[in-house]
Fold this sequence. Notes:
The chain is of the alpha+beta class.
Amino acid sequence: MIRERIEELRRQLHRHNRKYYVENAPEISDFEFDALMRELAELEREHPEYADPDSPTVRVGSDITSEFRSVRHRFPMLSLGNTYSPDELHEFVARIEREVGPTEYVCELKFDGTAISLTYEHGRLVRAVTRGDGTQGDDVTANVRTIRSVPLRLDGDDWPDYFEIRGEILMPYASFDRLNAEREAAGEALFANPRNAAAGTLKLQASAEVARRGLDCVLYQMAGDALPYDSHWENLRKAREWGFRISDAMRICRDTARIDEYIALWDEQRRTLPYATDGVVVKVNRYDVRRALGTTAKAPKWAVAYKFKAEQALTRLTGVDFQVGRTGAVTPVANLEPVQLAGTTVRRATLHNAEQMALLDIRPGDMVYVEKGGEIIPKITGVELSQRPADSRPFEYIDRCPECGTPLVRYEGEAKHYCPNQNACRPQILGRIIHFIRRKAMDIEGLGEETVELLFESGLLKNVADLYDLRADQLSPLPRLGEKSAENIIRSIRRSTEVPFHRVLFALGIRFVGETTAKYLAGHFGTLEAVMRATREELVEAEEVGDKIADAILDYFADAGNRRIVERLEAAGVRTEAERKQLLSESLAGLQFVISGKFSRHSRDELKALIESHGGKNLAAVSAQTDYLVAGEKMGPAKLKKAEKLGVKILSEEEFEQMIAAAETTRTAGEEPEAEAADRSVEPVQGSLF
Length: 690
């Protein structure tokens, strides 16, 4: 039960990370996201046997796009721990002072934009890179150069020859309102908030349009090997002299009373600012103290973000629309009379699902309370019953797809309703194609959502396999394309056949099969054919695959249309086999293993990797072909009984280690495989970052 909850939380958080950072379409508030993250972190602390290096608790979310060159950060861009509680903030200060004694803190506003890292060499801007996944991000230098508050050359002459400065790209409220007014007049979708608008603008291909939209940039952190001072405060004061926009709101605070005063002041005054803020960041000032405190895998121990409480407004519900996603999931969205909230005009808010609507007892014409949890996405939190019309009637949830008219279904254990008509429901078809072409999937450049829709409406694209039948002469006559764009798209489609198998598996868009699960499936089964032929029992043997995911995989490949698409992808040359790894030895060649249970010193995937690196083969289930069962704690009694019945030799973790150690000793120095050079991030001497 505990493991299932951990797996479910990971899947939810991975998804919300993607929606927030990749698609710029968040579905839940910061507060809700942090609650899920806290629950997962607590469960993982209590149950270390379920540790996962890819868990959202140990990694940073991602905003990498499919349109810009990827650049590795010299200094990792970590995230920040969040708190909404003054008591937790006070405990943060108390913990620091228990470790290092009384110290200085710098309090800053937490700007609600998109993170950026600017690199300067010899006083000139040479590179601007988004946060990405914290290790690498997108090179958006050409677009950042259009932002007038970003200096292209520094003033003075006492700056380091090489350093980085980090901050936020922001869209002021005035620019945001102007942009959305223009989009509304043109019949285009509106941006939900200034943060999304800033992120979307930064990823435009046309720098002239970026310049027109009026972005701003505020800087708040430096990193380098030769910064002028050993304190955050002094370095930022110096950076202001060089021409950087540094917030005037920064303050040095030496105790919790001063920190509380700062938070109270800006919780009130933030409404007067020209751009969005959603909290206060508290940082240790001196770098030597920061180095003594250190960092976790995800965040520095010397900084924390205090989030302001969400603002609330009262407005009228005018109607409800229903949106259909690529998996067929139907999401209700409330239409509201425009209302000002947290510096933006709110016209729409998510209602999540039928259960949430029933819980709120929301009705047409109701006056509803709208809240921006964490200052990001509006949601309805309640109904003002005293203003409910006397003739109101309970809302009747739709029972047919709003796009294709197919009766909706609701799967056991799920809150959402689904349209099962995956092969003829327009938004599902488009959604699957758009998912397929994304960077973390097939990485087909030049094909954005508008182009996909254009190809669909032109009859050239009905499913993902159709991509590989396209010709440049079919594309070039279409609006907004032309010969050069058409040729670039075709070249990118051809290059996508070299994408690794695990990304192909992710690109198929199987329900619940995210990036991590796709990697586990690819590593476990090796080929797409093996995944397609796997039984439910064999599927759940793969890491990260539970009953729910196994059923989704079986359902996907049970569909004749999906199988035809897979066949066409294979015929087009798309990779359907995992790349064979260089063997350390062939000492286990011809031997077949089954790994089952929990192990104290290795994960199951690590054991499987060891087997494969010495030429052995992993099986999903015990059979007459199995040579060894490597048995850990809490393995299924049925599997053990079957192994004993078939005479399969059973190894403990220690016995297996001895087998591998014996294999290692047979290798000579001349047989050692050449290790790949690791591209490691450099820890900064001064100015450790987030």
